[in-house]
Specification:
The protein is mainly alpha-helical. Helices cover 80% and strands 0% of the residues. It contains 18 helices and no strands. It is rod-shaped, with a radius of gyration of 53 Å.
Length: 420
């Protein structure tokens, strides 16, 4: 920011003493030169030259009063140029203390008064425009304050009083509308029509600035609306719709952000919704035969839930049953493939972790009997004295265990020998 030049600054005096080069030795021509610099607006050079000349003039010189007066002209002209530039840049608020400083230093200079009035008028214009904008945006308190500021800087603005009177009329009408809407909302609240009440109380702010009571009513209604959302969430939870319930709690938290209970329930419901999604994904994995991945997903979900633990545990128990069923099917496959010893081992493995499963014990007993019977008949066949008896014993084994040991080959051999 350009500042007015002060001719009496010690730093400037030192600078002028150093910068002094050559100039007219006669005082009159030098004064004329300083005046020319001042007219051109070269205030810095003019100030240096005037200070230099004043230093050279003796105390009794008749030119000293002229130089002193010239320095005052330079200071005023420099300061006013600074003010003019700041007004041009729209910085009249910053210019005001500068022009006030000039007025204090040079109280008898009328030009300063004119510029002072110009600066104050510009500031008043700014406040006046701000007031009109505030009226357009229905910020009436701000408008009143801005109008008052405008008059403070320019007391001649009599039109402001007319505008304030019009503002009073508008505000009175708006107050009537706001009151009507407010009490309509109260009626809706008494009737339990919460949404309509909230809508009415919310509209009051369009007609009344800082509608404290209406805002309080909005908060009260929102608390009641939040409870309706909580009730809706509870119904959804009962039906197992946890994601939808979480959305209801989110809306309840928005309506009543100060409720620690709702905030805690919201967090829990988000966890329940996530757990439920993990349950669905785990079930899909199980249906695809990915029992281990499904078990991991459901176990992780079980750690999140408080409300669905029974369902999750049932799914985990179901996975165990599926595993046992798969083991049973495998043992049954061994049995049907006449791999009786492997089937017995498989059935016994199932019963290691439980007392019973389907007909495992009965099948084990039957298979053990078959194994013992096969061993007995095979031993008797080995001791038979005649091939017919041996073949008959082997045929008995073949009935229930066609591929036991080497009996298929022995039966073929004995059959061939008898044919010959």
């Amino acid at each position: 920011m350009t500042r007015p030049i002060t001719c009496g600054s010690p730093a400037l005096l030192a600078l002028l003493a150093l910068a002094c080069a050559s100039g007219p030795t006669n005082g009159e021509p030098r004064i004329e030169s300083i005046e020319a610099l001042t007219r051109k607006g070269d205030y810095e050079r003019a100030a240096r030259a005037s200070t230099q000349l004043l230093d050279e003039l003796g105390p009794g010189s008749a030119l000293r009063p002229r130089v002193v007066a010239l320095q005052e002209q330079i200071s005023v002209a420099s300061g006013l140029e600074t003010v003019r530039q700041m007004i041009f840049e729209g910085r009249e608020v910053e210019a005001l203390p500068i022009i006030e400083g000039l007025k204090a230093a040079h109280p008898d200079v009328e030009t300063i008064d004119a510029w002072m009035q110009r600066v104050r008028t510009k500031i008043a214009d700014g406040w006046f425009d701000a007031a009109r904008i505030a009226v357009a945006e229905e910020r009436f308190d701000d408008a009143r304050s801005a109008y008052a500021k405008s008059v403070e800087f320019d007391p001649t603005r009599t039109v402001v009083q007319d505008l304030l009177t019009e503002l009073d009329r508008v505000e009175a009408w708006r107050a009537d509308v706001a009151e009507e809407i407010y009490y309509r909302g109260v009626g809706h609240l008494v009737d339990g029509r919460l949404l309509e009440a909230a809508g009415d109380f919310g509209k009051v702010g369009k007609y009344r600035e800082n509608p404290t009571r209406a805002d309080q009513r909005v908060s009260e209604v929102n608390v009641l609306l939040a409870e309706t959302r909580v009730a809706s969430a509870a119904a959804l939870v009962a039906d197992g719709h946890f994601s939808a319930a979480a959305k209801e709690y989110e809306e309840a938290a928005r309506l009543n952000p100060n409720s620690a209970r709702i905030a805690a329930d919201l967090e829990q419901m988000r966890a329940e919704a996530l757990a439920n999604q993990m349950l669905i994904e785990g079930r899909s994995m199980i249906l695809r035969g990915e029992l281990e991945r499904g078990a991991e997903e459901i176990t992780a979900g079980l750690a999140l839930t408080n409300l669905q633990k029974d369902v999750f545990q049932q799914e985990l128990d179901g996975i165990v049953e599926r595993r046992v069923q798969a083991a049973y099917d495998r043992a049954l496959g061994f049995e049907h493939d006449f791999r009786f010893a492997e089937a017995v081992t498989a059935y016994e493995a199932i019963l290691e972790s439980r007392d019973f499963f389907k007909d495992c014990r009965a099948r084990i007993d039957v298979l053990r009997d078959k194994i013992a019977e096969a061993e007995r008949l095979y031993a008797e066949a080995a001791q038979a004295e005649d091939e017919a008896d041996e073949l008959a014993l082997l045929r008995q084994i073949e009935v229930f265990w066609p591929d036991y040991s080497d009996i298929p080959g022995r039966i073929r051999a004995l059959t061939k020998e008898s044919d010959e």
